[in-house]
Amino acid sequence: MGIVEILGVAGSLSLLAGWRLYLTILATGTAMHFGWLPLPEHLAALQVLANPWVLGVAAIGTLAEFLADKIAWVDSMWDMVHSVIRPLGGALLALALVDASDPTWQVIAFLLGGGGALLSHGAKATTRAVVNASPEPFSNAVVSTGEDVATGGLLALAIAFPPLAILIAVVMAVAAVVVIIALRRLLRNIKATLKRALGDEAPRTDGGPPS
After folding, report:
1. How far is it, in rounded angstroms, from Cα 84 to Cα 87?
2. Measuring CA to CA, how many Å separate 201 from each of 45, 156, 193, 207?
């Protein structure tokens, strides 16, 4: 397993951790514990994830995240709480995949893992802020369910086919950057429109009718 493929898997897991940290840990640990997926040798360092105590905590976190993520604005509060937890978890997942005897790659993996998780977390949190502004109640649950399915599918592909993990990591990173830029621009436009609308409706102080 080459260093590029290892970094690809590390990047994929880290980016997915920015969406669903507990699900990423639970799925990887469960696959290792029961042998459901043909795990490559480089994931042996993650054997701790197969520990029953770790699986239990991850299962509780996955259930809590699944429920919180389906409720408008509760999901944003959950994202806010996990603004540090997800990047740190992503960094530690990436750290466990590289050679512990090489401090250079350990540092690189930690920084890239944390940065990748923070990037995908930022895209997720920004998306939810926009979706929560929608007046209808169903879009939040639809987007959340899509994230659940995408996380599980991409995680399985990244673990089963390490060369594909490189492509997954690159596509997810580029998509996250595009989403963040586009949605922040949209939010700025919405705020500007609201300010103009509120300004137009404000009463005039010169005795004349509102403009």
Report:
1. 6
2. 62, 53, 12, 15
* Total Cβ atoms within 10 A of residue 180: 18
- Domain boundaries, given as residue ranges, for the chain: 3-197
- Going residue by residue through the chain, which has 211 residues, state the pLDDT in tens, using 9 for 90 and above: 566 777 788 889 899 999 999 999 898 788 777 776 555 565 566 677 788 899 999 999 999 999 998 888 888 899 999 999 999 999 988 887 776 677 887 888 888 899 999 999 999 988 888 888 777 667 888 888 988 999 989 988 887 787 888 899 999 999 999 988 888 888 787 778 777 777 765 555 555 555 5
pTM for the model:
0.80
| 40 neighbors 160 (Cβ within 8 angstroms) | no
